[in-house]
Amino acid sequence: MTNDGFFTILDSVDSTNNYAIGQVHAGLAKSGMCWFTHDQTGGKGQRGKTWAMEKGKNIAMSVVFEPGRAHITNPFHLNAAVALTCFEFFKCYAGDETKIKWPNDLFWRDRKAGGILIENIFQGTSWKWTVVGIGININQTRFETFLINPVSLKQITGKQFDQVELALELYELLLKNLANLEPMERLLPKYNQRLYGLHKTVTLKKDAVKFETLVKEVTPQGRLVTVDSMEREFDFGEVEWVL
Predict the structure, then answer these.
(1) What phi, psi does 177 have (nearest 5°)?
(2) Band of pLDDT at residue 125, cut at 50, 70 and 90
């Protein structure tokens, strides 16, 4: 383990989010602390899915924040800021075909390059901590067969990267963007502008039913708005993308 105080490098951990949550509950976390690992053996994704990665090839890290210090009252405000930060970081290397897939996956063309898992810690009704987990494919070129359309920065660019250096760059960008957090009325249009599938017909799945619908926008509360025979709104986890 290497530790400079706020950016800690772990050799191996089941999940950086689990580790970060453990640090919060143990009273050892400070707002802005980050834990990066070379090997994540039980990474978590959205909706209870797993996040699989090859050892020593990618970014897997979690950052903890106290939302109150940044005066964040809407969880999706933070979600949008983190997603835009990851977009901004990845686009610098992968180019203009980088997009944000609602609610917070990182896409390049029609392929998944990364994901964000945000877990919040409450005491009663008080939002005390948020744990931002980020996984981005950097140097991996072979993936598990159950993964759908994965892609890495190396596959996109043909170049090898130092994943720790990139993680530090992303971490510093995230701290900067959250310290200078834009109001939602300015942030949301940027999020929507970079939305994967915007103004296009996509296939979604709700329960066991698949349907085609046009992506219109995401609301300030983070609901996906689509249009087909009527306008609909969906919460996180209510629908799945069919790629």
Answers:
(1) -65, -35
(2) confident
